[in-house]
Design brief:
The chain is of the alpha+beta class. It contains 15 helices and 16 strands. A hairpin with a 5-residue loop joins β6 and β7. The relative contact order is 0.07.
């Protein structure tokens, strides 16, 4: 029979009696209460009917692997709240769901009275006893839905390594406080996630998964992260927004967000973490106003451009070594600094950079200055396409020229110095980009090249030319990405390795070029006609081949540092 009820409704306490000669099966809650009353021990707390559910519970009877539908989704949602399953409900009883149910059954089985037989011979299992098989029968489902405090078992803290830690991590991940590959180790990143959860839920912020913390964590009252954590391997719109923010704040060297949390994003987050650590920034309940270190960095404090130097103790080096999961576990006291440079964007840090004006940390800069603030300026100029070299922290001639161009294009006084007005606009969403006349998009799937120019809003939306091309074969593919170190090459370019020539070379990245169809010599009468017929399909060793007319157009019209995006 199918029946529905809501999580806020009262459910009966699961119990059962085996009427044999030597054993009686108690209700799960009865076991806990008996332990507490008789021995005064701290037993797992599994109170009934504490929470108010957010979703309707749907039960249609026993559920097994392969089943689908709303009842399975309801089961998965409940398992996720209790930390046995990670991710959103799919409505399909898959292997992950089976493992999660088996974990819950293992917990239930461990709470039952031992079966004692006569003369040491154990009788058959009592009717209604929990069998750990990963199948959710009606008794398991009713028990699962009646427990609303998460079946707290033990306090967890830095250095612990067991299955309960993985369950803790699953729940933190489901709420957005933890990201990346999970394991059974309570490392530094798990501790940060616990602290973030405690901060958001008005609990004592100590990074220890206490009974109070877990009871709230494994309930429907748990407040999810307002700014979800992100880590290597993540992708999508959330990562893209992070990348755009990192570019605007001057920590990511890129001109386009690709939505993939790869090595470049990890380095950018590490750059940010190192920078904020050196500023003495703390997060959560310890959050403070950013201060300068004693490294000689200063920031402006008035319209008259006077500056003040504030000293704090520099951040010490890490005091613990990473384990196989890349997390430090040796240090078990209070963190001397809340931010560690591990390249993981935790939710507290994401909230900080999303809601705090870090531009005020920058001081006025001029030619020949050398510090981390210059690196931020250089990365920001790179993202705005005014500067195309790696950030080295040295305010040299190239940086000065880029600042001058930025000031000219943004209608500021052209001094080449980073004053308050220049910095305020440079690190804002209103900063105008250093526009090249064209932007080139190469579509590997379509074997097409599209050339755009910018509109009145400085967006490259106006298509001016479409070209048919040949990109690299699958064994010698054209590299994907966004490239800005581009420019005109030779009128005739020789491929020594392949014994051929091409016209109108335009560099994309390294030795990857736009160029014409192929020739046997640097003579137009030596055309290799097979390269012409191959246009429209993958055929090159990585370069982007074009017709002579199209290659000449790019060579003639596109400036140095024209952005080329291959996707």
């Amino acid at each position: 029979m199918k029946y529905e009820f809501h999580e806020s409704e009262t459910r009966r306490k699961p119990s059962g009696v085996w009427e044999g000669k030597t054993v009686r099966k108690k209700g799960i809650l009865g076991v806990f209460l008996a332990l507490i009353l008789c021995f005064g021990a701290v037993a797992p707390a599994c109170a009934v009917n504490r929470g108010v559910g957010q979703y309707a519970i749907i039960m249609t009877g026993d559920l097994r692997p392969g089943d689908t539908g709303d009842a399975v989704a309801s089961l998965q949602r409940r398992l996720a709240v209790l930390g046995y399953l990670r991710g959103e409900p799919t409505g399909t009883y898959d292997d992950a769901t089976k493992r999660a149910v088996a974990q819950f059954e293992t917990y239930l089985s461990a709470q039952q009275d031992p079966i004692i037989g006569i003369d040491g011979v154990a009788p058959a299992a009592p009717e209604g006893a929990v069998v750990v098989d990963g199948e959710a029968d009606t008794n398991v489902l009713e028990t699962l839905y009646s427990l609303t405090d998460g079946c707290f078992q033990e306090q967890l803290r830095l250095g612990d390594d067991n299955s309960e830690v993985l369950r803790l991590q699953n729940r933190l991940a489901n709420l957005g406080y933890l990201s990346g590959k999970l394991d059974t180790i309570f490392g530094s990143q798990t501790r940060i996630a616990v602290r973030a959860f405690q901060f958001a839920n008005s609990l004592k912020e100590d990074g220890i998964a206490t009974q109070e913390t877990q009871e709230l964590l494994y309930s429907d009252e748990a407040v999810p992260a307002a700014y979800p954590a992100l880590a290597s391997g993540d992708s999508g719109a959330k990562v893209m927004r992070l990348q755009e923010l990192l570019m605007r704040l001057g920590f990511l060297e890129a001109t386009q967000a690709d939505g993939t949390y790869g090595n470049a994003t990890k380095i950018a987050v590490s750059n940010l973490q190192t920078y904020l650590r050196n500023k003495g920034v703390r997060l959560g309940a310890n959050r403070n106003t950013a201060q300068e270190t004693e490294m000689g960095m200063v920031f402006p404090v008035g319209e008259d451009m006077t500056v003040e130097t504030v000293s704090v103790t520099p951040a010490p080096s890490d005091v613990s070594s990473p384990n196989m999961s890349g997390e430090a576990i040796a240090y078990n006291g209070e963190d001397p600094y809340d931010i560690s440079a591990n390249g993981v964007m935790d939710s507290l840090l994401m909230e900080y950079i999303s809601t705090t004006d870090t531009v005020s940390m920058l001081g006025t800069m001029k030619k020949d200055d050398w510090n981390d603030e210059v690196k931020r300026v250089q990365r920001r100029l790179f993202s705005l396409e005014y500067l195309f070299s790696t950030a080295d922290g040295v305010y040299g001639t190239g940086t000065e020229a880029a600042v001058l161009e930025f000031q000219r294009r943004n209608h500021l006084t052209e001094t080449g110095r980073c004053d308050q007005a220049t910095l305020a606009l440079m690190f804002s969403n209103e900063a105008r980009r250093g526009m090249r006349t064209y932007r080139i998009i190469v579509s590997v799937d379509e074997q097409k090249v599209y050339v755009y120019t910018y509109d009145a809003n400085d967006q490259y939306t106006k298509l001016v030319r479409t070209m048919t091309c040949s990109t690299g074969t699958r064994s010698t593919p054209t590299p994907l990405g966004t490239f800005t170190n581009t420019g005109r090459g030779a009128r005739w370019h020789q491929f020594t390795k392949w014994g051929s020539w091409a016209q109108y070379a335009f560099y994309i990245n390294g030795d990857i070029l736009f160029h014409s169809v192929l020739y046997n010599t640097n003579n137009e009468n030596s055309l290799i006609r097979s390269s012409v017929s191959a246009l429209g399909r993958r055929a090159s060793h990585g370069c982007v081949r074009l017709s002579v007319e199209d290659a000449k157009w790019i060579w003639t019209n596109c400036e140095q540092h024209t952005t080329v995006i291959v996707r």
